[in-house]
Design brief:
The structure is a homodimer. The first copy, chain A, has about 230 residues and is an alpha/beta fold. Chain A has one domain (about 1-205): NAD(P)-binding Rossmann-like Domain (Rossmann fold). Chain A contains nine helices and eleven strands. Chain A has helices spanning about 10-20, 35-45, 55-60, 75-80, 80-85, 115-120, 135-140, 160-170, 185-205; strands at about 1-5, 25-30, 50-55, 65, 90, 95-100, 105, 125-130, 150-155, 180, 210-215. In chain A, strands 3-2-1-4-5-8-9-10 form an eight-stranded mixed β-sheet, with helices on both faces. A two-stranded antiparallel sheet of chain A has the order 6-7. In chain A, helix 8 (about 160-170) links the parallel strand 9 (about 150-155) and strand 10. In chain A, helix 4 (about 75-80) runs parallel beside helix 6. Chain A is globular, with a radius of gyration of 17 Å. Chains A and B meet through strand 7, strand 10, helix 9 and strand 11 of A and strand 7, strand 10, helix 9 and strand 11 of B. Strand 11 of chain A pairs antiparallel with strand 11 of chain B.
Amino acid sequence: MRIGVLGTGMVGEAIATRLIELQHEVMLGSRTADNPKALEWAAHHAPNASVGTFAQAAAFGTFVFHCANGGHAEKVIASASEPLAGKVVIDTSNPIERSADGVVQLFTDQSASLAERLQAAAPKARFVKALNTITASVMVHPEQIAGDHLTFLAGDDPGAKTDTRALLEQFGWSPAQIVDLGDLTAARSAEAYLLLWLKLWGHVGHPLFNLSITPAAGAEAHASPV
Amino acid sequence: MRIGVLGTGMVGEAIATRLIELQHEVMLGSRTADNPKALEWAAHHAPNASVGTFAQAAAFGTFVFHCANGGHAEKVIASASEPLAGKVVIDTSNPIERSADGVVQLFTDQSASLAERLQAAAPKARFVKALNTITASVMVHPEQIAGDHLTFLAGDDPGAKTDTRALLEQFGWSPAQIVDLGDLTAARSAEAYLLLWLKLWGHVGHPLFNLSITPAAGAEAHASPV
């Protein structure tokens, strides 16, 4: 498969490299087509690796990962809006900033996730929020962590979610580990969890961990209000 | 110990009843001193159970649980601000509302948790955020769920957190299950997780579950940015 990866940070590099391992053709996109880090990565992973602008990488892929820093995400997606039309875009970004008083917080307001803002910036793309709740290395090698730890999907397009699941399974996630949270508004909950994830990182002492959930045995069904 | 419990909803009743089981004296506080539900509860749990207004329950307790609905929380705490002075107040509430478009969201903005707003409403109280990330029944009987599932503390007063830990251990939480997230600003992350918790409830099919975290084996230390 031809896949575009937007963003050359830790997440973009980890995903692009894993996709190469899985025999996909990958174009790594950045602001300029001559980003030195991207060129070095492509040289190291020839012949299936290439580099381009965000718009070129979006045009290249039949499938696109958005891995740019949350603070730049809307500009990145707007710059690739046309070539993203009709394509599945997996958004891994988080709307994290440091407040004036030094506390890490979300820069979104409570009524929209960053994923929804990106969908608005490229209305014809088929956005799926995924993988934003774990560190890059665990995203692409979930077998590092024992047990049925979880990753989440949110999106409005059922076919796009099915395609995303298939790619996550290539990364090593089992079907039972992939939880569909609902439509794209559910990305609000996956992004909000990042605040707790950062605190849990402090507790664990490194980011190579993930959450799992254990239900009480024998509990009766009781529908959620959401 | 004499303990005040503010709020007669599911959480207030579960905590008050558990405290009675543990041989504490409990006053259940509500808006009026003749709340029928509170009176029925006290009659059932005589002689260590009593009822009063929020301010009376706050005055009664050497230790206070805040269990009122998030939407009423600031009024409740403001009405008991004076008797709460100097006391440990465990805040279990969540700033949850349904938006105009039907999505459940937080009514706080990103720069302050409800716990911080309650601390501002009763500046001399010693607030600790705790237990807000789990359903009432699991708060007070964590043994229903297998494994080292977690509960969180956030607060500015180390002594208040130590006292809160001791009470949580009476409920059945082991020291390893109680994670100190940091100062009261860390309550933002525990409250934000509620959005994911509600979605996970939908996935599990009932609210009798909790999260645990599994680290990768052999990972090196890497300090969190928060």
